Amino acid sequence: MRQLYLTILVFAFLTSCQEKGPKQEDYDKLKSELTECKKTVEELSHTPQIRLNAGQKFKNENDFPNAKKEFKELIQKFPGSEEAKTATLLLSEMDKAEQEQKEAEQKKKTLGFKILKENSSFKIGDVTIKLNSVNTGSQWVFDNYGSEYRYRSAERGEIYILSRVSISADTKDPNLPPIAVYKISNGNLALIGTMSYEFSRWKDYGTYLGNNADFGNDFAHSKTISFSCGISVSKTDIDDEAVFVVVKNSNCFNRSEERFNNPPVSYTEIDCGIKNTLTIDDFDKDYFLVKVFNKNML
């Protein structure tokens, strides 16, 4: 009815204009009526349910300012309605969430990296990485095939940070996540380097040489494989600094095969994009803390 009335009104005004030209008072009257009609249409298009839905959409998108605006207008224009009651509860939830976020941010600023908690197992994409041990040593041992094993010895003034790692995969050819080592520097973390992956063991010497297949080291046949990971670092760093072992939320070590290498299979880094400097905010979603050496130096 309102649209019909509006159409008739505009038609009558245009007809009058064609016959004898518009009068100023007619123009002003029509303009006023059009404005009122527009307001009415806008009000009708913003029912309590529509306002509630709009506010909930903003809330789900974490756009709290616009969500609060919708809810407050709903409560003001339709007090006592069921939608207004729901909006009141949602406003309370947002106020609580904002307060908790504010307290968490303040705690971050106060405690810095001390706020981080150590964990040993992470789900990253299609793999689960579990660091069974993280320690230091003068030798890095790997590629054990029963009667022998391979190892690397740290150079003078250096020491290895080592980890025994189990990786389980949902797919048959997964990439593996990087394990990086940082030290405290000017209130942030400075990258020392990224650990390398080696296989912990082989079935026998023949599989180590690649003469026979070792299904225990092939995700196409085994869901879980054991690795030995290590990196050589300065003894000064490990003795005098707080050193962090972290895992990046990314899978970027891929499997490669070189027939005449011993062993012929390896995992190498492909564009991991490891940051040279980390802040506390990087641990919100991109990096996970495994272990801190020398916590007392934080």
Can you offer a commentary on this structure?
This protein has helices at residues 2-20, 24-44, 48-60, 64-77, 82-111, 205-209, 235-240; strands spanning 121-124, 127-137, 139-142, 150-153, 158-169, 179-185, 188-194, 196-199, 224-234, 243-248, 253-257, 265-269, 277-278, 287-293. The chain has 298 residues and is α+β, with helices and mostly antiparallel strands. It has 2 domains: 2-111, no CATH class; 116-297, no CATH class. Strand 3 (139-142) and strand 4 form a beta hairpin. Helix 3 packs antiparallel against helix 4 (64-77) and helix 3 (48-60) packs parallel to helix 5.
| Helix and strand composition category | alpha+beta
Q: Approximately how much helix is present in the residues? A: 25-40%
**CA distance, first residue to last residue:** 73 Å
- Individual helix count: 7
State mean pLDDT (0 to 100 scale).
86
Over the alpha carbons, how many angstroms does the gyration radius reach? 33 Å
- Label the overall shape: elongated
Q: How is the main sheet built? A: 5 strands, antiparallel
Strand content bin? 25-35%
Widest β-sheet, arrangement of strands:
1-2-5-9-8
The number of distinct structural domains comes to 2
Order of helices and strands: HHHHHEEEEEEEEHEHEEEEE
Record field, number of beta strands: 14
Determine the oligomeric state from the structure: single chain
> Which regions are unreliable across 5 or more consecutive residues at pLDDT < 50?
none
Please specify the SSE layout and strand pairing.
Blueprint: H1 2-20, H2 24-44, H3 48-60, H4 64-77, H5 82-111, E1 121-124, E2 127-137, E3 139-142, E4 150-153, E5 158-169, E6 179-185, E7 188-194, E8 196-199, H6 205-209, E9 224-234, H7 235-240, E10 243-248, E11 253-257, E12 265-269, E13 277-278, E14 287-293
Antiparallel strand pairs: 1-2, 2-5, 3-4, 5-9, 6-7, 6-10, 7-13, 8-9, 10-14, 11-12
Helix pairs in contact: 1-2, 3-4, 3-5, 4-5
